[in-house]
Specification:
A hairpin with a 2-residue loop joins β7 and β8. With about 300 residues, the protein is mainly β. It is built from no helices and 23 strands. The strands form 7 sheets. Strands 3-5-8-7 form a 4-stranded antiparallel beta sheet, with no helix packed on it. Strands 4-10-9-6 form a 4-stranded mixed beta sheet, with no helix packed on it. A 4-stranded antiparallel beta sheet has the order 11-12-16-15, with no helix packed on it. The protein is elongated.
Amino acid sequence: DLRPRDYANFTCLVSVRNVCNIPDKSASFLLKNTTAPPLVSVSVPETVVVDPGTDVEMECRVEGGDPPPQLRWSHSPGPMPPNARVRGGRLWIQAVATEQAGFYNCSAHNGVGTPARRAVELLVRTLRNGRFWITPDPFHDDEQVRLDREVKVSCQVEAVPADQLTIRWLKNGRALRPSSRIIISRHDQDFPAGVSSVDIINMRFSDSATYSCLASLSSPALPDLRLDVNVSTSLMPPVLEVEQPVVEVEEGSDAELRCVVRGKPLPAVLWSRVDKERGSAPGTPEWVTEDGTLRVEGVRRD
């Protein structure tokens, strides 16, 4: 219970009694009837979406606190980008890059209570890692595309932000129109986010064509991402063979991991790292290679 006489200047003294000639240290704090913990706000919404290459500006504002709080900006994950500039509570990022997305955190500290924090999530629009796959008739456990059977063509694109992703389908360069036999799923519930698919029921010879998946975001500054796949009865399922199951190299040198694939169309190879402690569980795909060769530079033990 504070009383009027409790408002005073308090000093904390730390001393080792001059051991090894270490001087005493002290810190003072003036407790007043206006003393209060910090309170801050930011000038932008909690989530900001921008195009790559644009300039970003945000401000952290002190709304309260006595003594006056000190402001600090930080970034997670990782440190602040080199093209970021901070002056007081203002933060500028010139020509923001995709890898500089993340959370920008403003903290205010004045020694009273807990520091005040506000976070802004910066999303930089991105379209990447587009891929497709063809699923022959799932009801007949078939590995080849056949006439009078069902075939499913799926397309996946990693998009930021995911809710702005739009996928359109073309057939031989023209807009594909749905029908009783052609079913287009804009967001396929059977697959992860960013997947759209075309189901062809009772495939006919006229359905053999080049199907294009056209992905776009709601920004004219970002080019569309287009994937083409030729669908015909001559398609062959992928066959995979590892040339060298165990590769030994010296630490710090480069390594090449080769995977031979066959199929029509020629499959792209997705590489992932698997935790050797849980070797049965597949890892998340991290690298896509067209020729099946993964090159790792400067190999480390970890």
